[in-house]
Amino acid sequence: MNQSPAPIATATRTLRILSVTTRLLLWVVLAAWGLFALSWGALHLWIVPRIGEWRPDIERWVSAGVGIPVRIGELRAESTPGEKRLLPALVPVIELRDVRLFDPRGQEALLLPQVSVAVSVTSLWRLGVDQVVIDAPVLDLRRTAQGRLEVAGLDISGSSGDDGRAADWVFDQPELVIRRGTVRWTDELRPDAEGPLALAALDLVVRNRGRQHEMRLDATPPPEWGQRFSLRARLRQPLLDLVPDPGVPSTRPWHNWSGELYAEFPRVDVQRLRRHVDLSEWNIEVLGGQGRVQAWADVQRGEVAAATADLDLQDLRTRLGAELPELDLVSLQGRLGAHWNADGFGFSSDDLRFATRDGHLWPGGVLRIGHAVPRGERPASAVLRAESIDLGALGAVAASLPLGAPVHGWLGSLRPEGQVTDLDATWQADHPEAPLEAFGEGRFRARGVVQALSLQGAPSGRMSSTGRYPLPGRPGVAGARVEFELDQDGGRAEVLVTDGHVELPDIFEDPLIPVRRLQTSARWRLQGEHIEVDLDEVTLQSADADGTARVRWQTADPLTSLSASRFPGVLDIEAKLSRADGTRVHRYLPLSVGDDVRRYLREAIRAAGPTEVSFRIQGDMWDMPAVPAGPDRAFRIGARFRNVDFDYVPAYLQEGLEGARPWPALRQATGEFLLDRQALRVWNLSATVDGAPDVKLGGAEVRIDELNDDSVLQVVTRAEGPAAQMLAYVQGSPVNGLLNGALARARMDGPARLDLRLALPLHELNEARISGQVRFPGNDVLIQPSAPELRQASGLLEFSEAGFQVREARAMVYGGELRFAGGL
User: Fold this and answer.
1) Among 248, 409, 575, 607, which is least packed, fewest CB within 10 Å?
2) Strand residue runs (E) in 196-276
3) First and final CA of the chain: distance in angstroms?
4) Global confidence as pTM
C-alpha cells in the first residue's frame, strides 16, 4: 500500500510562498516608481510652473522653519540647465531674490540679494530642499556680552525664544552654500578688539547627511591680518540625540556632537588673532608675532577635549600668566598638543624648536606629560616622557613659563644646562584622596640619560656649632654625563664628568674643582627620614691631582648628634691621591680646618714636586674637624712630599713687625705631612736652608698641636754643614734678635752641627722662644772682633732667647791650649 510523499508537498508550499513574495515585491517596486513619476511630474509640471503663486506659502514655511519672519521679493524656478546650475537638469532650481529676514522686534535684520534652492523628488517627499546657495551676502556676526551668537541680529545659538530653530534649520539642510560673501565679526566679550573684523571673499559650505555634519569656511582677512585662511569641521550626532537635562532645552544644537575641527592660517598676525580668540581661561596673552598656524581640535559631546597645533612663527612675544615676565622668541617651530577630560589632562610637543632673543636655542625634541585624577579606587597618577630636551633653553625661559613659584626658584637656583636624551618617569599616589601636589608621598619611578649636564650648587646658609665655618651646601657639577634610575626607595646613577668641574659650596674655600675626568657609581637609599648615599670607585684626574676615593654619607640621628638634626649628616671618606700638587694642598682642605691653617699652608708651601695624599674623614660633620676619638671617628689628612720649598714662617705672619728679618725658607724639602683633627704635623723633614745651600737639615719636625686662635708653631730641626753658613743663618734671621745680637759679629769656619727648637706663637711672634746648641769639632772661632781668636776650638754652644752657654770647650789661644766654660 503506497503513502503520499511528504517532500513533494513541502516543495509545493515553498514555491507557493516564494511566488507570492515575488509578486508583492514587484508591486512595491512598481508602486515606488509610480509614486516617483507622479512626484516628478507634480514637481516639474505643477509646482515649478506655478512657483510664483506659492510665494506666501513658501514664506510661511521658511519662517516656521527658521523661527523668524521671512519675506521674499521675487520667486521663480527653472527645470532646464543654465550656467548657474549646480545640479543636473532633473533637479529644478528655485531662485529667491531680495530675501529679507526680520528680527523678533519686526525690524529688518538681513537682506539676501539672491538665494538659489535646489529641489528634488526625495527632498519633496521630506518637505525640504537638496541645496541652498546664497550669493554675495553681507553678514554681521556678533557674539553678545551674554555669550549668544547672532547673525544680523538673529540669535542662532539657540539661547533665545526661538528654541534654537534658526540653528536647527541650518543643520537640517543637506547642503548650505554661501559664495563670495562678506562678514563683519564683532565680539562683545573681547573689549580689546579693534572694532569689527571684516572678512572678504567668504565661501562657506555646510553639508548635513543624516547624523554627519561637515563645514568649511574660507575667507580673506584684512592685509595686516595675513593671508586667506580656512576653517573646517566634521562632526557627528549621536544616534540618540538627547539633551542632558530633558527639562532644560539645549542652548546649542551641537551640545553633544563629536568630531574634529581644523584651522589653517598660512600667514597670520597672532597678536591680532588673539583679540578675537579668548585665551583668558589659560592665562595666555599674545603680545606679538606672525607666521603660519595649523590647528586641530577633537570635540567630544560638544566640548573641545584635545587640541594640536603646528606652528611656524617669528618674533613671538607672549605672557603665559598675569604675574610672569614676557616670553620673547625670535622663532618658534614645531607641534604642540594637549588633551583634557574628566579623567585628567596631557600635554605633548614634537620637534619643537625655538630661539630666544638672548641667544638660547631649543633644538627640538619630544615631550609627553600626562596626569590622571583619582577616580573611585584608582589614585592620582602622572607620566613624563622626554627626548632631546635642552635644559639650558628650558632654564632660560623658565621664568616666563607657568611652572609655579617653587619650580621657578628651583630652576633659577640650579641654572640647568645639558641635553636630556631620554627620560621616562611615572608617579602614582598612595591613596585615591591624595592630590597631584603630594608627589613626595606617592610611588614613583624614573630613568633617564642626561648629556653635558651642568647644575649650579648653592650655599647652605647654616653655620657649624662653633660658628667658625658653614655647613656643606648643595653640590653642583658641569660637563657630566649621568645615567640614572630611581624610585621612592632610592636609586643608582653612573656619573662621568669630562673636562668640567665639581662644585662643593661651603666645603672648600674655592668651591669649583676643575676636573679632566671624574667617574663614579652612585647609590642611595631612602628609609623614611633616613638617607644613605654611597659613591663607589670614585676616580679623579685633574690638573691638581689624580686619585681614587670611596665616599659614604648618611643622615645623623637627631637624638645623638650635637646638631640636633639629621643634617649635615655623618660622612665617611677614604681617598688616596697618587699625584698631587703640593702647592695646592690648602685648596683641598675643608673650611672646617680653619682660615689660619689654610692660609699658613698656602703661604708656606711655595713650590712642590709630586705629592701622595691620603684622606680619612669619618664622623658627624657637625663636629669636624674636632671629631671625638673613637673607632668610627677620624679626621686625618696625610701626605708624603718631596722637592718642596717651605717657608715655615711665611712673610704674612711678620706683618706689622717693623724691621723684622725674614725667617730663611727651606728648599728641596722632603718629608711627611699629617693633619689629625686639630693638630698639624710635618716630620721626617729633610731640606736645605735658603741662603745656606751647603747646610743640610735632617730629622726636622714642624707641628701645631692645637689649631685655634692661640696656635703655636713649633720647629725642631738638626742641621749639619759649614759653620760659616750656619752662623750667617743666625745673623741674618730673627734668631739674631732673640740672642740680642750676641753672635752678630762672630765668625767661624769649618763644619758644625746645629740642633734648634723654635716656638712661634702665630698671632704674637714677638713672644717667640728659641733654644738650641751648636757642636763644633775644631773650628776657628771669633766671638767679638776685640776678643782673641779661638783656633781649633771644640765644644758645645747652647743658646736661647735668654742668652748662651759654652760647655766643655777647648781651643788654642796665643799658641797655648785653653779650656773654658761660661756664657751670657
Assistant:
1) 248
2) 197-209, 212-220, 229-236, 258-269
3) 171
4) 0.71
